[in-house]
Amino acid sequence: ETKKGFRTITHSPSDSPSILVAPSMSRSIFFSKIAKKPEDIGNPRPLEYDFYRKSCPQAEKIIRSKVRSLYEVRSDVAPALLRLVFHDCFIEGCDASVLLDAVDGIDSEKESPPNETLKGFDLIDMIKSQLEEACPGVVSCADILVLGARESVVLVNISLSLSLCGLLSYLGLNLEFQAGGPFYPLQTGRRDSTLSFSEVATYELPNPQNDLPQIVASFASRGFNERETVSLLGAHSIGTIHCRFILNRLYNFGGTDEPDPTLDPQFLDLLRSKCNDSHTSLSPSPLLSPSSDDGSASRSSSSQEPGVEMDYQGRGSGFGSLYYRGLLESKGILYVDQQLTAEEKTEAWVRAYASDDSLFGRDFARAMMKLSNLGLLTGPMGQVRISCSKVA
Ligand code: HEM
Ligand SMILES: [Ca+2]
């Protein structure tokens, strides 16, 4: 009873000025309707390395092997889990709030417009059910999200370096390669929220049409500097962008009836060949015009929607550096991506990462650790859900 409504906000982004928060959406008003402050909660416990060592010693191993086995059969596993952790941690911290279904007429984050094309909920459920078999009620969905994203990053890099190794040995070059990319250590012991923050997600997740000052302000409101922001966007090395997010750049940029003039002309042709004009009327950007569509319906239909692979040249190797090299050649797919080269203060980092993979790897790993530790909700706050989409 009193458990429901527990919420700690160690990190409260709207306390700091954020141009992305609509004035009408005052957080305190929103919370006061649904959140009760617990009377006697004790001190929150810090995270620990291998938090589950006694309660569920095989937890991290189960997550790793499940992500790996899913990755072998589904190529979208890594991008789905990586994006999911960003969308969870950015909104009220890493508390699995993004996974909750709507209940009793309260909208869920999942259904908020910026989350309409999120994927990977089914993957989290599969991992969770294996953990529930091994240790019922012990491992939080929030920890599954951060650990699952970390395993995805490692896998992407392993497979990329292996394919590079394969190519080199095919060419008769026997160079030694260290497989595996930026692995980052993560502490555990996060707990799951009992609340979903639909309005916060709607107004505070960055929009693909944001310009550089908006991107910088948005990430700064979560404690990220420009260097960290540029490195995090390197996540856009993998996955798919649906056409709806870039149609305006291709056909009618800022109402001009012309494409975005900063796009490389050949690249523009390539993107147009994947996203033709007829899609314009079919799919207005949900991020520009929030719709009342059911989130799950548009999620399943978005898998059939046309899109552009982020590694569009089949570039294979190079999580990070090839994304940044693309930006230097005016071949950013999203408007936000290309905005990273709009000013010297961020372009300098784009250049640095374009030419130095290991610098990028280190910075990305550090920024992912920081992202994974936003807004901690630890015992005795929150709860451990049994099913990740429902409050326990
Ligand atoms: C300014 C900040 C950002 C904006 C506006 C943004 C926006 C977007 C958009 C519009 C898509 C395409 C979604 C679709 O077509 O379904 C996307 C995909 C993706 N984003 Fe971001 N993003 C941002 C930052 C990040 C960060 C920080 C991460 C992770 C650390 C991330 C990870 C991903 C991944 C992995 C995908 C591919 C998803 C997939 O293929 O399923 N993004 N992003
Ligand atoms: Ca969250």
UniProtKB/TrEMBL annotation:
Keywords: Calcium, Disulfide bond, Heme, Hydrogen peroxide, Iron, Metal-binding, Oxidoreductase, Peroxidase, Secreted, Signal. Its main location: secreted. Ca(2+) 1 binds at residues 88, 93, 95, 97, 109. The active site is at residue 87. Residues 281-313 are annotated as: Disordered. One of its GO terms (biological process) is hydrogen peroxide catabolic process. Substrate binds at residue 206. The keyword Signal applies. It is an enzyme of class 1 (oxidoreductase). Residues 281-303 have a biased composition (Low complexity). This is Peroxidase. It comes from Camellia sinensis (Tea plant).
